[in-house]
Amino acid sequence: QVQLVESGGGLVQPGGSLRLSCAASGRTFGSYVVGWFRQAPGKEREFVGSIINWNGGSTYYAEFVKGRFTISRDNAKNMAYLQMNSLKPEDTSVYYCAAKRGAQVRDVDAYAYWGQGTQVTVSS
Q1: How far apart are the C-alpha atoms of 13 and 99, rounded to whole Å?
Q2: In what order do the strands lie in the sheet with 69-74?
Q3: Do 78 and 24 touch, CB atoms closer than 8 A?
């Protein structure tokens, strides 16, 4: 129903900022909750945050990123974003955009659609 492509990853110094984008194809992007996840080598994929289907709607974050990361969306452009500030080396991971219908949840298995991921490396 929807296809997702992440972009904006790269190398950033500790304490720096990075903005990831999620471009969606499809006619019903505004019907989907968008979630952001990350997965480091040898570790399970973990929840970063999510946003309800409408512009300016409620967001939900993992405790370890709350206050540093901000999720937003622009349904007219079929885009969602993850603004990351005060980055730490432990934030290094592949970041994924995902989508689902229904309520915002943390469970990776609840998200039916996934992008290919974009690498974020935090290092001096």
Answers
A1: 29
A2: 3-7, 18-25, 79-84, 69-74
A3: yes
> The tokens of 62 are what?
């993992």
Question: Average of pLDDT values for 85-99?
Answer: 97
d(CA 45, CA 84): 18
Give the mean model confidence (pLDDT) for residues 35-59. Answer: 94
Q: How does pLDDT run across 79-90, given as a tens digit for each residue?
A: 999 999 999 999
Pairing of strands 59-61, 46-51: antiparallel
In angstroms and rounded to an integer, the radius of gyration of the C-alpha atoms of the chain is: 13
| pLDDT of 66 above 80 | no
